[in-house]
Amino acid sequence: MRNPIDDEAKAYAEFDEKVKRTLLIDNLSHHVTAQMLKSALSQFGIIISVKFIPNYIILQDIPQAALVEMKNKHQAEYIVNLIKKQPFMLCGIPRPVRAEFAKHANFADRPKRPGKSITVEWLKPNHPNFDVAKKLKNIVKKHDAESSALLKYQLEEEEMLVKPQEEMLKNNYRKYEMIEKSLEDSSCYRLAGYYNITLKDD
Known about the structure:
RBD_domain_sf, Alpha-Beta Plaits, 202 residues, Epigenetic_reg_gene_expr, Nucleotide-bd_a/b_plait_sf, four-stranded antiparallel β-sheet, RRM domain-containing protein, RNA binding, single chain
């Protein structure tokens, strides 16, 4: 007969190994997708999964962090050290992402630690810790307002940066198209002859 306690211990041990090879990628732009993260980090190792962490502080569904599970701990450690040494940007946004090893608390679906339990209770005004809880509640409200203001500023700044970058990419694409077309119809050789320039096929 299977022992539920043994099953819990086994499930938590497997989860613990998963945490050791998982990265917490933070300070992400809202333009970043799971596929972008995979493309950017797959050059450093094999990615098992990418899961965005819901942002419970703000009302908008805009994740700013993600859990990236690598094949092993060594690959995760390599990425953490790499991003600490040099700026690592995604989507061309000048907001370098941060990387660190994930912690157990980062996983909303983490299994219960064997032998541990969590109790929740409402505090009445006559409770000894009521004032402490009230102060914490006010701090959370203040933090929420500050985070919302900062997020609004970041989103506006990124939108201002994204538009010029998109226009620059379009202009560069048009230039390459024009060069390719001039090579196909040999107009570049006529221009070279007109300006007395020698072109080489290589």
